[in-house]
Amino acid sequence: MKVPKPFPDELLLSRLNRYVTMYGVHIVEFTEKAFGKDRVSVHPFLPAGIEQLAALIDENKDRIINEQTLAPLFFLFMPKHAAQLKRLMLACEGAKAFRYSQLASFSSRHTLCLKWCPVCAGKELKELGVAYWHRTHQIPGLTACPFHPVLLHRMLLVSRQRVMAGCLPSHTDAVVPAAEVEVRVARFAYELLQLNSRDMGQLDLASVYRHRLSELGFITAHGRVRREGVMKEFMAVAGLYRPAFDTDLPRNDRDYRYISQLLEPESSRHPFRHLLFSCWLYNQPQDLFKRTHSSSSASESNKLKSSKKLRIVELKCLALLRESHSLAEIYRITGKSRCYLKRLALLNAIPIETKPRALTDECKHCILRLAHAGVHRKAISKRCGIGIGSVEQVISSTHGMVDRRKLCHWESKRRRCRVKILRYRQSYPKAIRQQIKVQCNAEFFWLYLNDRGWLEAVLPKSKKPIGRTR
Ligand SMILES: [Zn+2]
């Protein structure tokens, strides 16, 4: 099978469409040969069945994945799912690969489309005689061409059959200028994709972003992100980006979750969100990779340094507490909150005098007695006439109390579930296992997972299935 060689930045689907157009191949015949099925829905930028296709056209499967699909971008931004996504794309597991790409959760499944730049298409028709689908244009969220400051056109993919004769970009004079930020993000995405196609390795993006934010002065001395400042400046740029159905943009400059989620280690976020944010942080994508080698050792030593620093502050607080300084005074010296100091004092059995004197030794004793019996925090708070925060503080600063309460809670849940099953059995002695499972569903499964021995002993014996006679 002689599939035409790829043009620069050409999508695999584009090559297949050119092939069936040029040779007038029957589609069913082609999909049977290439993917082993007569009906196959080839995803425009994350196609599956590449191993079989690569063998058929005698090409390297890794090169196809890395250079003719958007997989490298997903591998980079979703490191947790990268290996699985690649395996599924090589096998003929299109639906599963799509699931692993997380695109479904970004709600862009129903609006799958192919995008193209009218200027690129016009130029290609003139020079090559055919216009083709560019890989970079298909990046979800991109609205502009990286090479021309114009908006991309979209063609909705309504049919499940995506390998089609003649399905290639057409010439149009409708050219709409794009905003500067849209072209900048597109250019950044194009360069990043080119870099990553050469396998630049994995990135710990959360720490790369943190490192850069720290360079820009957005991290406090205590290692916290100044999210307000970040969002304000980031929105000044992101706010100019044109919203489309697949652009994952922040809602406003108080949408702090937008940034927090990107800074979570190994979190899976929409590739466009990463592109927009990293394009704001860096001038060029190469900078993202520059500090990976130095940053891993630097972050380790930073961690060590900060834990040492914390220990020094803790020791200082303990010394001041022992010298009976007031909490307000210690706060002024060390910057540590009253809550932290109170907990530290409780853990180290240092008596402290605080202004609200409701939490007396007697009250604490009462709280601990009730907490030990597994009484709910709200009930303890009501009975002792003290705030729920104080109750929680006493509980969490007593060794072993949290574990004991967890056990109490677990046992109480088990009692409730057992009683529900037993009552149902008493009311309906003839009920079979299936009916009990349906009527007491939550309790049934809780016991199945946590107390299977008891459940099996109480349930009626399962009946042997009766075979169907022909
Ligand atoms: Zn273009």
UniProtKB/TrEMBL annotation:
TniQ domain span: 4-152
Residue ranges of every copy of the Transposon Tn7 transposition protein TnsD C-terminal domain listed in the record: 186-294, 362-464
Cross-referenced Pfam families: TniQ, TnsD
Domain of life, per lineage: Bacteria
Annotated protein name in UniProt: TnsD family Tn7-like transposition protein
Protein's organism: Oceanisphaera ostreae
